[in-house]
Amino acid sequence: MNQLPTYFLSHGGGPWPYLDGEMRQAHAVLEASLADIPRQLGVTPKAVVMVSGHWDEEIFTVMANPHPPMIYDYGGFPEHTYRISYPAPGSPELATRIQDLLKAEGFSAGQDVARGFDHGAFVPLTVMYPNANVPVVQLSLRSDFDPEAHIRLGRAIASLRSEGILILGSGLSYHNLRRFNDSGASASREFDQWLNETLRESDLQKRAERLIRWTEAPSARLAHPTADHFVPLMVAFGAAERESARTIYHEDRFFGGLTVSSFRFGD
């Protein structure tokens, strides 16, 4: 099997695929981009490794629950969204393999046998694989959000791509909840322009250097006061860092004027 590409997904707001009306309509372009990913792949992955902006630990930690429960890590949504089920199986075997790969690269790495799916994982997956028929293992961020360490994390698990395993980073290319409306339009646009230029136009060496120094980018800390929703991109990039990047989702009217993007690394 050829290597699968990797993806960084802007996953949107809350449990939007389970809503109707304006909230669902606001995510129409994003929904179409997520639904198209299985077509792009052309094959069903043997498993998904999901790195979500909603899970970080002191050391890199792998979900090892064979039947992951649900984590409803959002508030203020209709009652039915707290009864959502995304019953994809886990894979303790893959979790152990990931842990071994990380340790081989000098990382401290643990397992969590109780962890369930947070909405950074089940929201995009329910659009991509609504039948929940692909095993999913979540892999945490490290709480220091060190960009170089997360690029190295991607490198450490890159070999899984040739085994038919899909590596996904899930966050948002803009994530400032205090300015999650048109007041963030300028910052999101400036940062998104830098990000697209970095990933699609910079030479290979400069891409990694620019990402490691991402806080120097225009409006970086206005776009990301904390790095939790941006660092998943580092993992997807690190697992395919010598391959081309393509923007698979982009809009500039998200939540009233925000500019957001998602990316694919590799063909």
Task: Give a short overview.
With 267 residues, this protein is of the alpha/beta class. The protein contains nine helices and ten strands. Helix 2 packs across helix 4 and helix 5 runs parallel beside helix 9.
Structural write-up:
The chain has 267 residues and is α/β, with parallel strands linked by helices. The protein has a single domain, classed as Protocatechuate 4,5-dioxygenase, Chain B (3-Layer(aba) Sandwich). The chain is built from nine helices and ten strands. Strands 6-2-8-1-10-9 form a six-stranded mixed sheet, with helices on both faces. It has a two-stranded parallel ribbon with strand order 3-7. The chain has a two-stranded parallel sheet with strand order 4-5. Helix 2 crosses helix 4. The model has no long low-confidence stretch (mean pLDDT 96).
Q: What's the structural blueprint in terms of helices and strands?
A:
Layout (H helix, E strand, L loop, with lengths): L5 E5 L11 H5 L1 H14 L5 E6 L3 E2 L2 E4 L28 H13 L4 E4 L6 H10 L7 E3 L2 E2 L4 H11 L7 E7 L13 H17 L2 H9 L7 H4 L7 H8 L6 E10 L3 E8 L2
Which regions contain 5 or more consecutive residues with pLDDT less than 50?
Answer: none
Q: What's the total number of strands?
A: 10
How do the strands line up in the largest sheet? 6-2-8-1-10-9
Q: DSSP helix count?
A: 9
CATH class: Alpha Beta
Ends: how far apart? 13 Å
The shape, in one word, is: globular
**CATH superfamily annotation:** LigB-like
Bin the strand percentage: 15-25%
SSE pattern, N- to C-terminal: EHHEEEHEHEEHEHHHHEE
Count the domains: 1
Major sheet characteristics: 6 strands, mixed
Structural class: alpha/beta
Could you tell me the CATH topology label. Protocatechuate 4,5-dioxygenase, Chain B
Q: What is the typical, i.e. mean, pLDDT?
A: 96
Radius of gyration (Å): 17 Å
Approximate helicity band: 25-40%
